[in-house]
Amino acid sequence: MAGFLMKQMVGNQLSEVTGGLGMKDDGGEKTETGEDPEVIAARLEQEERRKEKHRKMENEREKMRQGIRDKYAIKKKEEGVAMDFTEGRIGGPRKTPEEIAAEMNAEDDSLIGQLGLTEQVEKAKTMATGAFETVKGFFPFGK
Which is more confident, 103 or 126? Predict the structure, then answer.
């Protein structure tokens, strides 16, 4: 209890003393964010200095890069040129199984179709598939 009374008495006197020294917060000029305009101006100036410093550094780096390019006869990459990638593939678009089957069934374009051997080829395919299925049951790799 005595500590509380002492704090109350000394606290009031301390705030009066600090108010007399100019440490009192009078709520002067503040912006919407609650910051002093001088602080904001200083931050903006500091940001501009930082950006200018980085611009200078990048210009120096570009001069160094250009010197290396000149020394070793390296061409600068064009920034505007973009390579056209189709879903990450370098080649053309991949054909679907339906498109491949349609190409296989185009008898007029193939040599077998022109010679009239389509029926014999189909019979050979059927026999080979049947033989493979029969043999596959005997070996462990087919299971």
Answer: 126
